């Protein structure tokens, strides 16, 4: 790789640039390198420890072939007629074929009767193995180097990215033939475990480059956590919990012996809720503590016995990390509307896999494995097609809000205040979970005021200032797209709940594309035959445009 250094900027070239540091990014970088191209990967944190996957264990939707039909059917049914059977089949097959590779690279899956059981992984070890493999195949990794904006060639294709290196206190530019955005979804800095790097940066970069988002109304995913340590969002132990109010009255929460998924949201709106894991048998206790040990660390640190003592619980917003909204992909190589730009993992919309339901845990893990590889292969092919003069293209930076002021001479905006303003609209259950037209309009008006702030003069004194002002802009942008999409889907479907439209409308079988910076828009992309074929979408005239 050609490298030129200066006092203020590091300049690099590669065939494929991957932005992100989780499983999808690692698989994309490996798949691209396997095509014989030069690959650079830049991560906001340390590839191997940053992101949601590295923080704990995770199941993987990668059943053996004899169970494919069953798992495909179950996954499709959860998508509420918006998932796509062909995509689900592709994801399951690719994940199943890929996990043996991880074992070859050094990961040790548990054994049963001498056979490897590849149903889940331990996040820290899984990511350590993926990082080690990337170094083995020659991928150049830049940690602590958040990308801030994409570079565009004169023909509108992506030509690399620009960012900052925290530890070296300088900027960097990577000129590349193609770029894969695999830098996660957006949890709005809710402190959900492993999600502090998931602030929607990739979504903003994609739209600035001319890309589109889709299913952003599926951005209201909350998960249970202990209130005294509202970070570890592992729901499995709470399947065996009894719930009571502050006075000790039983709150129920189960339907035919299964936990009601909407129970806790509604109960918390009425007052504090307490949980005790007293429904778990000793056998279940041992199994859950082994497979979800990180969920028990808060109890151990606090000296609490969760099986005999009740603890206050809360819900933590995970947004699009376990929701499904993200960058709209337009082909089976996970390409976007922008030539040379690909999306994978949580950064990409998972609508084909899950509709508007959560793809959390197993489906998400399989999605990261499969889309990472498809995006990496697609990016490598695109970069090769550009020929030897790829880095001679004239390029321009695409970044706007949080990087460059539209109002020179204006007062510098405070990124922390902007973040708090976004969280005030996105965190409350009564705003983001139980949605209605008036509350959505009220929040959009406040978010529009924040958007005008981040158009102003960003603080740029240090690389941290650059990163944080850009992060604030991304959070505002994602919140606006999420609520604007929610406003225009006038039904309740899966995780998108409209109190003023409580029924699922069988006539709303479409994905909602969205985008725009100053002027937001939505478009209905009708699903022709989600049950039998790959997604074939027809574009209707723009349904609505709003400038608040």
Give a short summary of the structure.
With about 550 residues, the chain is an alpha+beta fold. It has helices at about 25-35, 70-80, 85-105, 125-135, 200-210, 265-270, 280-290, 295-300, 350-355, 360-385, 415-425, 430, 435-455, 465-490, and strands spanning about 5, 10-20, 40, 55-60, 110, 115, 120, 140, 145-155, 160-165, 170-180, 215, 220-225, 240-245, 250, 255, 260, 275, 310-320, 325, 340-345, 395, 510-515, 520-525, 535-540, 545. The longest helix is centred in the last third of the chain and has 26 residues, at about 465-490.
Give a description of the structure.
This protein is α+β, with helices and mostly antiparallel strands and 548 residues long. Helices cover 32% and strands 21% of the residues. It is built from 14 helices and 26 strands. Strands 1, 2, 3, 8, 9, 10, 11, 21 and 22 form a nine-stranded mixed sheet that branches. Strand 14 and strand 15 (250-252) form a beta hairpin.
Question: What brief labels describe this structure?
Answer:
548 residues; alpha+beta; nine-stranded mixed β-sheet; six-stranded antiparallel β-sheet; 14 helices; 32% helix; disordered N terminus; steroid dehydrogenase activity, acting on the CH-CH group of donors; oxidoreductase
């Amino acid at each position: 790789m050609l490298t030129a250094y200066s006092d203020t900027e590091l300049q690099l070239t590669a065939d494929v640039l991957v932005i992100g540091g989780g499983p999808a990014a690692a698989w994309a970088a490996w798949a691209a390198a396997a095509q014989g191209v030069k690959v650079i990967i830049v991560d906001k944190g340390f590839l191997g420890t940053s992101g949601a996957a590295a923080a704990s264990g995770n199941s993987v939707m990668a059943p053996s072939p004899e169970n494919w039909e069953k798992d495909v059917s179950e996954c499709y049914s959860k998508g509420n007629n918006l998932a796509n059977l062909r995509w689900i089949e592709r994801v399951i097959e690719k994940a199943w074929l890929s996990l043996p590779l991880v074992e070859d690279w050094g990961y040790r899956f548990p054994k049963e009767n001498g056979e490897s059981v590849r149903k889940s992984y331990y996040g820290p070890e899984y990511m350590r193995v993926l990082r080690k493999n990337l170094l083995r195949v020659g991928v150049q990794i830049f940690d602590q180097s958040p990308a801030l904006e994409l570079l565009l060639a004169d023909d509108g294709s992506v030509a690399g990215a620009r960012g900052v290196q925290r530890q070296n206190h300088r900027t960097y530019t990577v000129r590349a033939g193609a770029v894969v955005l695999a830098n996660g979804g957006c949890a709005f800095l809710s402190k959900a475990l492993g999600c502090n790097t998931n602030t929607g940066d990739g979504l903003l970069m994609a739209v600035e480059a001319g890309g589109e988002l889709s299913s952003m109304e599926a951005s209201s995913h909350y998960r249970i956590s202990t209130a005294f340590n509202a970070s570890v969002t592992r729901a499995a132990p709470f399947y065996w919990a009894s719930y009571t109010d502050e006075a000790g009255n039983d709150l129920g929460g189960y339907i035919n012996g299964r936990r009601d998924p909407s129970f806790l949201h509604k109960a918390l709106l009425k007052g504090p809720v307490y949980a005790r894991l007293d429904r778990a048998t000793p056998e279940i206790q041992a199994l859950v503590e082994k497979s979800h040990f990180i969920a028990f660390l808060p109890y151990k640190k606090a000296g609490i016995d969760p099986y005999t003592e009740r603890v206050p619980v809360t819900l933590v917003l995970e947004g699009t990390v376990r929701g499904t909204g993200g960058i709209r992909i337009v082909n089976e190589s996970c390409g976007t509307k922008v030539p040379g730009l690909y999306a994978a993992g949580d950064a990409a919309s998972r609508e084909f896999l899950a509709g508007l339901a959560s793809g959390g845990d197993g489906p998400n893990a399989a999605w990261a494995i499969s889309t990472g590889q498809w995006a990496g292969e697609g990016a490598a092919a695109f970069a090769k097609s550009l020929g030897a003069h790829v880095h001679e293209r004239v390029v321009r930076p695409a970044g706007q809000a949080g990087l460059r002021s539209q109002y020179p001479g204006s007062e510098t905006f405070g990124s922390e205040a902007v973040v708090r303003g976004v969280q005030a609209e996105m965190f409350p259950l009564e705003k983001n979970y139980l949605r209605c037209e008036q509350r959505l309009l009220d929040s959009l008006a406040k978010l529009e005021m924040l958007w005008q702030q981040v158009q102003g003069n960003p603080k740029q004194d240090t690389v941290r200032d650059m990163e944080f002002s850009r992060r604030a802009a991304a959070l505002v942008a994602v919140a606006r797209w999420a609520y604007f999409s929610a406003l225009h889907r006038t039904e309740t479907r899966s995780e998108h709940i409209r109190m003023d439209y409580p029924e699922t409308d069988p006539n709303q079988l479409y994905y909602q594309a969205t985008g725009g910076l100053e002027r937001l828009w939505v478009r209905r992309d009708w699903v022709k035959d989600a049950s039998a074929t790959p997604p074939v979408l027809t574009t209707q005239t723009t349904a609505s445009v709003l400038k608040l």
